[in-house]
């Protein structure tokens, strides 16, 4: 059986780059995930919102990249947040200590309204 594919869509809403993730972030798709988000997070002063409504799985390397993107955006005086994250995944991130680092919002609208 073939691995489910990862689909990523990027759109600009005001000064926020919204990246929607659909499918799994695993060993087969981690490079695609990284290649899509690295340049977006590296923009000085960039505001990045990762919409995870259709994210089905994320492995430990993907979680590490989320922490990296937060640090990169923050270091460039920007902002990085996630919305529509599955509650089970939020609990996992909390257990790993990422819950206190990353910003989570229930909806895209709530995240966009909270952006500094």
Strand content: 25-35%
The end-to-end span amounts to: 44 Å
Instruction: Return the string of H and E elements.
Output: EEHEHEHEH
CATH topology category name: Transcription Regulator spoIIAA
Strand order of the largest sheet: 1-2-3-4-5
Count of the domains: 1
Could you please describe the fold and organization of this structure?
The chain is of the alpha/beta class and 116 residues long. It has one domain: STAS domain (Transcription Regulator spoIIAA), CATH 3.30.750. The chain is 38% helix and 32% strand. The protein has four helices and five strands; from the N terminus they run E-E-H-E-H-E-H-E-H. Helix 1 packs parallel to helix 2. It is globular, with a radius of gyration of 13 Å. The mean pLDDT is 92.
What's a concise summary of this model?
The protein is an alpha/beta fold and 116 residues long. It is built from 4 helices and 5 strands, in the order ββαβαβαβα.
Task: Fill in the keyword field for this structure.
116 residues; 4 helices; 32% strand; 5-stranded mixed β-sheet; alpha/beta; Transcription Regulator spoIIAA; globular
